[in-house]
Specification:
By secondary structure, the protein is an alpha/beta fold. Helix content is 35%, strand content 15%. The chain has helices spanning 15-29, 44-53, 64-78, 90-93, 96-105, 154-171, 219-225, 247-256, 278-282, 306-314, 345-355, 364-380, 390-405, 418-425, 445-455, 467-472, 498-502, 512-515, 524-530, 545-550, and strands at 34-37, 57-60, 82-86, 109-115, 141-144, 179-185, 236-240, 262-264, 295-299, 319-323, 339-341, 410-414, 432-435, 460-466, 486-491, 533-536, 556-560. A 6-stranded parallel beta sheet has the order 2-1-3-4-6-5, sandwiched between helices. It has a 6-stranded parallel beta sheet with strand order 13-12-14-15-17-16, with helices on both faces. Strand 12, helix 14 (418-425) and strand 13 form a beta-alpha-beta unit. Helix 3 packs parallel to helix 5 (96-105) and helix 7 packs across helix 11. The N and C termini lie far apart (65 Å). 47% of the residues are buried.
Length: 561
């Protein structure tokens, strides 16, 4: 179609304003309509166009780092791009932690940074830094749009914008989900014609996505995989790492769990499948050579359990197959040099099930895993090893009781450090459970929960995090649109107790004040500042606290200390 087929209602208006309106039309056409906005002057004209369009769900966060993590959280459930937009300068740099997390978690995130024109960079002008390709190498694509300014050939300019924007949005999803950065320089006067009516401009070509199809898999393929073990008594271990929710995958794992040991990670979205509490069993001591697998099959991405990683490094399988439909680099956390089988995971597991039909319904290998877990848990009782301190025992009980009380109506957002570990050692939960385990930082745990709750108003989102994570990310509560379906549990142990758990720093007492960051803060005054409900876990002991907490209406923070 010719580039002159754009229907421009008011061509006499400033071309810069028309270009901004067209960018907004392209975003709406692609369905990228949920945006986290950080206030600023340079990005204000684009935000104004979004407001005038009327088809966008906009949420304001003054802190850019919070806005970016909130966008990541909003995209976790939908697996469709959510956008974050900010002004120029260091505002853009503040988005980087969330970009890194989205890259390693494979979350589609559209990062739009307003910029100053290139002739002002390095000229001592305000709020100017080098924003082109700012987030490399942690993006799926980087696009530097032409400077938004008057143009002598407006149709050609719009066609160029269309090509760039549609390509950028597509790259948030394929060939790999992840963040894409679009940098938009705007030349003054940036508020020219900002009061003019919005111009709806239809793209000459609609936004389309092409879904790549991985190679098919059948029973013959699976038979080749299991040729490295005895098919009558297969020693095959399946490990499911960080993964997005997928009902079909649950069914495939259910079919196999009567034949093979399956270890599902706390953020695999498959907790109900496989062997329960296997990670807590490792706290009683790692299994010996008798449980070494001949074949290791992994799905998803990394695992939380450090114990499992150490054990598989020492008990290497004969073969390690990683199954993924994506043309993506495969990590090697167990140092086992995995072979990448590019197939649909569900098809591959059903093919494996068919290839094992002649083996015993429950192999000796599966029985051995079940026995080891049972014996280890019997030694531990309901808690952690006796060597664990009172703080860890108490906090584990809190998290375990809370997760046991959450059904499929709930979504759990876990902070890193001890919170995600407690959850990994807890009883299986029917709730969806997320954590920022791409980079495993503490910087955006609460912000991610806020974004998820905003994007999923029909679920009850419960954030569980430590005191240091909560304080570090307290600006997540700084928004006039804080969702009512968010509940927050803060495990306040007065510092970073993870460093006492992992050892090392505690052996050098002079280091601890610098590493552990001890404090005497509580969260009551923080809740007053942000006008959210506050309660303490030890109040009203006659009623089980998880029940009271989960039935509380409105955004509530519960402090457990």
């Amino acid at each position: 179609m010719s580039n002159h087929h754009f229907q421009i209602p008011h061509p006499e208006q400033a071309h810069g304003k028309i270009q901004l309106d067209f960018i907004v039309c392209l975003l709406a056409d692609a369905g990228v309509t949920r945006w986290m906005v950080s206030p600023g002057s340079r990005n204000a004209p684009l935000v104004a166009s979004m407001v005038k369009h009327g088809g966008f769900d906009l949420h304001s966060f003054p802190d850019e780092r919070v806005a970016a993590f909130a966008a990541l959280g909003a995209a976790q459930g939908s697996r469709y791009p959510v956008g974050v937009i900010c002004t120029s300068g260091t505002a853009a740099a503040n988005l980087y932690p969330a970009v890194c997390e989205a890259y390693y978690q494979r979350i589609p995130l559209l990062v739009l940074t307003a910029d100053r024109p290139p002739e002002l960079i390095d000229q001592w002008d305000g709020q100017t830094i080098h924003q082109n390709n700012l987030f490399q190498p942690h993006t799926q694509g980087n696009f530097n749009l032409p400077t938004i300014a008057p143009s002598n050939d407006l149709p050609t300019t719009l066609l160029s914008l269309q090509t760039l924007l549609q390509t950028a949005i597509a790259q948030t999803l394929y060939p790999l989900p992840g963040p894409v950065h679009i940098n938009i320089p705007l030349r003054d006067p940036i508020y020219a014609d900002v009061t003019a009516p919005f111009q709806h401009i239809t793209p000459t070509k609609p936004f389309l996505l092409h879904h790549p199809t991985p190679p098919p898999v059948n029973e013959t393929d699976a038979s080749q995989w299991i040729s490295h073990t005895n098919p009558q008594q297969p020693r095959i271990l399946i490990v499911v790492g960080m993964h997005h929710p997928q009902t079909e995958l649950s069914l495939a794992l259910q079919s196999l769990q009567m034949r093979l040991p399956i270890l599902t990670d706390i953020v695999s979205q498959q907790q109900a499948q496989g062997l329960p509490q296997w990670d807590r069993a490792f706290l009683g001591g790692a299994p010996g050579d008798g449980l070494r697998p001949d074949i290791l099959i992994t799905l998803g991405m990394g695992v939380v359990s450090k114990s499992l990683k150490l054990w598989l490094k020492s008990q290497k399988p004969k073969k390690h197959f990683h199954i993924s439909p994506l043309q993506a680099p495969v990590g090697d956390p167990f140092h086992t040099h995995p072979d990448h089988l590019q197939h649909h995971e569900v098809d591959a597991l059903f093919a494996l099930d068919q290839a094992l039909q002649e083996s015993a319904s429950a192999s000796n290998y599966l029985n051995s895993w079940q026995q080891w877990i049972s014996e280890s848990l019997s030694q531990l009782g309901d808690g952690l090893p006796p060597t664990a301190g009172e703080v860890y025992q108490r906090e584990f009980t809190v998290v375990n009781n809370l997760l046991s009380s959450c059904d499929a109506r709930f979504t759990i957002q876990l902070g890193n450090s001890m919170s995600v570990r407690y959850a990994s050692w807890s009883n299986p939960s029917n709730a969806q459970i997320f954590a920022n385990r791409g980079t495993s930082g503490i910087d955006g745990s609460l912000s991610t929960a806020v974004g998820y709750a905003m994007a999923n108003p029909d679920t009850h989102c419960v954030a569980i995090l430590g005191d240091v994570s909560a304080i570090y990310d307290a600006h997540a509560l700084w928004t006039n649109q804080l969702p009512n379906n968010l509940s927050i549990v803060v495990l306040n142990n007065r510092g970073g107790q993870i460093f006492n758990w992992i050892g090392g720093p505690k052996d050098v007492p002079s280091l601890m004040p610098l590493i552990e960051t001890p404090h005497n803060y509580d969260f009551k005054h923080l809740c007053n500042l942000y006008q959210i409900q506050y309660a303490h876990q030890t109040e009203q002991p006659n009623t089980p606290w998880p029940t009271r907490f989960l039935n509380q209406l409105g955004c509530t923070l519960w402090e457990c200390s």
